[in-house]
Amino acid sequence: MAEPRPLNVPKKTLEVELALFGASPRRVELFLAEHGSHDFNRQRVLELLEQAFLPGRDLETGEWESFNSRAVAWIGMSGSSIDPEGSGDELFEHRRSVRVALAAGDWLEGEVLYSAPDAGPRLVDHLNRKERYFRLWKADQVFLVNKEWVLRVVENGHGAE
């Protein structure tokens, strides 16, 4: 009888900047399982973040690790590296320039882009959606920000309504 071969699941790698709560951001490689012929995109990364532990490799040390997705404060990635063909297909009705205060004391700045029904176009309504992460755009980067580690979202140049 032939010796069984290990099961290899085809994977794609995605280089990201990762900030765990209370730690400095670092470059890591995430491993996304391939599903058919589709490229990975932000949605696949968001689905990966719903798992308890994420597989990765620290690009500086070369260490392989699994880290707790709940400890992720944010993940930053190049917009062009994650969905080169479909990224321009998303249309948003609202754009808010914001600063995000994180529990560890640091800040992220960028824009929150979203669509909402006429009855709920406020940024707070978008942030209160059930998803654990929201997207923050800055130039050619997209940050997936864990709401659990956000203390405040300050809208730039937005007066009282």
Write the layout of secondary structure elements.
Elements: E1 11-20, E2 26-33, H1 42-49, E3 53-58, E4 64-68, E5 72-78, H2 79-82, E6 94-102, E7 107-114, H3 123-127, E8 133-138, E9 141-146, E10 150-155
Antiparallel strand pairs: 1-2, 1-5, 2-3, 3-4, 5-9, 6-7, 6-10, 8-9
Descriptive notes:
There is one protein chain. This protein is mostly beta strands. Helices cover 11% and strands 44% of the residues. A hairpin with a 5-residue loop joins β3 (53-58) and β4. It is globular, with a radius of gyration of 18 Å. The chain starts with 10 loop residues before the first strand and ends in a 6-residue tail after the last strand. 19% of the residues are buried. The model is unreliable at 84-88 (pLDDT under 50).
Quick summary:
Helices cover 11% and strands 44% of the residues. By secondary structure, it is mainly beta. Strands 4-3-2-1-5-9-8 form a seven-stranded antiparallel beta sheet. A three-stranded antiparallel beta sheet has the order 7-6-10, with no helix packed on it.
